[in-house]
Amino acid sequence: MLGDMTVNDTGNGADLLDQPPLTYGQILRLDQLLQVARVDEDDVDRTLFLATHQSCEIWFAIMLRHLEEAGRALRDGDGEAALRRIAPLPTAMRVLSDQFDALATMAPEAFGRIRVELGDTSGFQSVQWREVEFLCGLRDERLLRTHGFTDADRARLRARLEGPSVADAFDAFRAGGRPPALVERVRAALLTFDESAALWRARHAALAERFLGGAPGTAGSEGANYLWGAARRRLFPAAWPQD
Question: What's the structural domain count of the chain?
């Protein structure tokens, strides 16, 4: 946890000694966080639904930081540094999968009501998850045309498309004469992360099927059928056993 952390983020150097230590709530900016999370809304089910998705977006942002650092380390030939950044990612995916268990406790009528309220919005419009996919190397330019993306969203995704991917960095690392044992450890770490992402997609598909059956999903998507198909997509095909 935060332990005895007392650094004030408003200054540095000797001035810190004259400032009172930050509290737990100040360090986490809880007042702002809980206001954004809208935890005081009357509709408790809606709060659960929205907070779950907000939490996903926080984890996606963390994943992007780790993947950027992992790709940079691989390009620099530092497999150990890459492993340190890849290691937390499967655990993060399991945390996200567990959140679907919380959503599964909702009554079908509550889910249906919230789904109507969503209108044309959908998790399909998560720019950060598309960034995760693009940064890993799973790139589909057609996704730039996703309904609901802003020009700024598309610019971010375009930058990911044009930038180096972690998959490309791993290919170069593997071909660069690195110790075979280290290459294998990196490959196994990427595979474990990829597997955890597939399981997260599958859990999402099962949740959608629980509430929707074969009906269309939010924003007119194919719902559970699309999600089951997406669960077979691989972020790092080269990390899996080859025929």
Answer: 2
CA–CA separation, 150 vs 127, rounded Å? 10
Question: Among 23-37, 44-58, 184-198, 217-231, whose mean pLDDT is lowest?
Answer: 217-231
Torsion sign, CA atoms 140, 144, 148, 153: positive
> How far are the Cα atoms of 83, 89, 99, 210, 231 from residue 197, in angstroms, in the given order?
17, 9, 14, 20, 8
* 81 contact partners, CB below 8 Å, separation of at least 6: 69, 70, 73
pLDDT of residue 15 exceeding 70 = no
Say whether both 175 and 227 belong to one domain. Answer: yes
Q: 113 and 79 in one domain?
A: yes
Cβ atoms within 10 Å, residue 158? 13
Give which of 104, 97, 102 is closest to 197, Cα–Cα: 97
Residues 180 and 217 occupy one common structural domain: yes
Nearest-5° Cα angle at 33, 68 to 204: 60
Comparing 41 with 44, the larger pLDDT belongs to: 44
The end-to-end CA distance of the chain, in Å, is 45
Considering the domain architecture, whether residues 33 and 63 belong to the same structural domain is answered as no
User: In whole angstroms, how far apart are CA 221 and each of 112, 125, 147, 190, 218?
Assistant: 15, 11, 11, 29, 6
> Contact, 161 vs 141, CB < 8 A?
yes
- CA–chain centroid gap for 110, Å, is 26
